[in-house]
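User: Can you help me understand a structure? I only have the sequence.
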Amino acid sequence: MLWYCVIGSAFALVSPHIDVTTFALVSPHIDAARVVRTVVALPTMYSLMSLNEYATHRYFQHLDFNRKDALPFIKRTYRILTGASANPIIKGDGHVEHHAETFDDMSLKYSDRWQRTPASKLLDADDFRGTAFHWHATGIMTIQMLPSVLPTYCLMGWSVPDTLALLLPCMLLHALVWNAIHPPMHGLPPVPLHVGAPSFVLAGVLAETEYFKYIFENHMGHHVLGGQVNYNVCCPGTDHLLGTYVPTEVWLDRMRPLPANAKTRGAIVGFHGMPVPPVCEADIVASAPAAITVRGGGGVLADAYSEE
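Assistant: Let's start by predicting it. Here is the structure, written out as tokens:
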């Protein structure tokens, strides 16, 4: 419903013969093809956004692209086009380090020892420690969408201007949702307008909604299971298609207590009844993420329980 309401204005611009509030036909001369491509426009855009979010999170942010067995066709194509003898290697954006300081309750480690590590110092350059979509990140994500969106909507009979009129508000909405949910769920402050899509726009709207609860738990499972699964954040779907979705009931009992006397950066913003780790009754030994075997899942990342 949120996507439908916010993006409705785009339909008013590109589809003047469709009442975007009710999808009622208001023209006496119905163009069936136009009706079909208008009705499927949002589901198609959502699907492409879900695919892009999944691929970006898994293969770029988690550096799964650098795994030897990952995306061999793309790497082979690169070698053919460039004449390179070796596969390309991509550098991360601090997301791996973000995992390295995240406990299972989504709070961020803040020990003196951790703050002296290169990983923590790398994250210090960003007030949001790699959790927010800055404006430049939203721009990059939008550009990444073009190779899939433009050909798809061209085949559907959309012009480039009309396609962009739909894509741009969708990408803005994605950034607004991300910034309303992701930094606060890790105990970090809201994102202001001069940094990225501002958190305040949707923070109150999403709070305690079923969508927020699902997104929160889905992303919590991503961290609890070492980043192997649940790569979609704002646009669920691709994980389900590719077999990398793990529901709450599977990972809930794998949550680990915070170490005794653990120092964290701030209070997480969650919801009433959200999953919580067991209470630590004694010092615990640093342990690896609670990895599970998932066919097609990604690599396991270190987290806040790992040795620093």
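Now, to help you interpret it: The CA atoms of residues 133 and 244 lie 24 Å apart. The first strand starts at residue 18 and ends at 19. Let me know which part you'd like to focus on.
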